[in-house]
Amino acid sequence: MSYAQKKQMSTSRTPAIIIVALIHVGLGYALVTGLAYNVAKKAMEDLKTFDVTEEPPPPPEEVPPPPERSDTPPPPQVVAPPPLVRMAPTTSPIVSIPVAPPPQITPRPAPPAPPAPPAVRTVPPQSVSGSMQGLIRESDYPPSSLDREEQGVVAVSLSVGTNGRVTGCSVTSSSGSKALDSTTCRVLSSRAKFSPAKDNMGNPTTGTSSARIRWQIAG
Fold first, then answer.
1. What per-residue confidence (pLDDT) applies to 105?
2. 8 Å CB contact between 138 and 194
3. Which among 139, 164, 163 has a CA at the least distance from the CA of 215?
């Protein structure tokens, strides 16, 4: 095939290629526009079937009823007292103050004891009325003791004053008969006489004297 034939064939094919290209472009456009139309149509249909429901408004708030009035006053509120706060005792610091020692006092020697007085020597009273037994008479015997035949020895202690008279009588040993004992003290206190006792200076003083009296019924 010659070059001229080839050139003629190429020029004859060019319009056909252009036409085919245009056909493809038209088909593509129709395809794109058809798809877009279908999509838009579907969207419109969806919009028509979509129901929009509005939310109902919220219910109004209920107003609480006013409190009922009562004639009785409210109970008093008990207010708790505030808690007691115990304060810790404050201790003051101990301050030591030096104290001077007390002065030493030398005790004075005790004065010498006075000399003991000389022992008092007294001269016992002396009977001037004779024997004590001789002062008892037969008539002095108590009648009750004679009736009961009471006999015995009575020992007595006589207190003698500065005038030599008997100032007291006590029975130191009983005869067993109260009548004989009491008669002995009564007779000696009234009849016995003494020279008073003397101290070491020779002055009369009190003293004591003892006596034993036998009571015996004469046979």
1. 78
2. no
3. 139
pLDDT tens per residue across span 134-167? 999 999 999 999 999 999 999 999 999 999 999 9
* DSSP conformation letters of the chain: --HHHHHHHHHHHHHHHHHHHHHHHHHHHHHHHHHHHHHHHHHHHHHHHPPP-PPPPPPPPPPPPPPPP-SSPPPPPPPPPPPP-PPPPPPPPP-----PPPPP-PPPPPPPPPPPPPPP--BPPEESS--TGGG--GGGS-HHHHHTT--EEEEEEEEE-TTSBEEEEEEEE--S-HHHHHHHHHHHHHH-BEEPEE-TTS-EE-EEEEEEEEE----
Which residues make Cβ contacts (< 8 Å) with residue 129, sequence separation at least 6?
Answer: 135, 191, 192, 193, 194
Mean pLDDT confidence for 80-85 = 64
Burial class (CB in 10 A: 0-12, 13-18, 19+), 192: buried
pLDDT score of 104: 76
% of the chain beyond a pLDDT of 90: 37
Whether this model's pTM surpasses 0.85: no
Phi, psi angles (nearest 5°) of residue 187: -70, -45
Query: Is there a contact between 159 and 166 (Cβ–Cβ < 8 Å)?
Result: yes
**pLDDT for the residue numbered 3:** 47
155: tokens are 């020992």
Per-residue confidence (pLDDT) for residue 149, from 0 to 100: 94
On the CB side of 214, CA atoms within 13 Å amount to: 4
